[in-house]
Each structure stands twice: as structure tokens, then as C-alpha cells.
Amino acid sequence: MPILNISLPSELFKTIIQTTSFAISNDELKPALTGVLFQFKDGGLTTVATDGHRLSRYHIKEFESSDFNGDIIIPRKFF
Q1: What global pTM score does this model have?
Q2: Which strand ranges, in their side-by-side order, compose the sheet holding 35-41?
Q3: Could you read off the pLDDT tens digit of each residue along the chain, which spans 79 residues?
Q4: Residue 56 and residue 20: Cα distance in Å, rounded?
Q5: Rounded to a whole number, what is the distance in angstroms from the first to the last CA of the chain?
Q6: Helix or strand or coil: residue 1?
């Protein structure tokens, strides 16, 4: 698996976590819901978290991710 090097300013990361972390699921039987989805696409960044009842989304239109387009789920344990 290739190693990704994506730079995200700490204040932006803090804002994303504060905006989305309340909706992260605690249900370990649904591992895809136990983190925050970071979607890098077309020069933008969208982050989403859900527990099946609540949904939180944060979007940045202009974000450079060094030519990476894809999705990454960062688990709650990382925060």
C-alpha cells in the first residue's frame, strides 16, 4: 500500500474534528462508521461522519492535496 503525504493545517484539522466528531459512531460492529471520512476530489475536501442517526459534513471548495483523489477513513482512536 502506498504511503500518502497530505498536508493539512492544524487549525483546519481542529475545525474538522470539532465539526464532525460528535456524529462518529461508537458501534464497533460498524467499523466504517467509527471514523471520519476524508474525501479528496477535484481540488476540494469533504469530510463526513455519521452514526446512523446523525450526519455531519464539512466541505472546503479549494484544497490542494498534491494530486491525490480518493477517500480515507480516519478512525476515532486517532483523534
Answers
A1: 0.84
A2: 55-60, 44-50, 35-41, 70-75
A3: 667 778 888 999 899 999 999 999 998 888 889 999 999 888 889 999 999 999 999 999 988 767 778 898 999 888 7
A4: 5
A5: 23
A6: coil
Q: What is the three-class DSSP state of 8?
A: coil
| Cell numbers describing residue 13 | 484539522
DSSP assignments along 27-75, one per residue: -TT-GGGSEEEEEEETTEEEEEEE-SS-EEEEEESS---TT--EEEEEE
| 72 half-sphere exposure, CB direction, 13 A CA radius | 16
Question: What was the pLDDT predicted at 58?
Answer: 94
Instruction: Specify the fold of 10-78.
Output: DNA Polymerase III; Chain A, domain 2 (3.10.150)
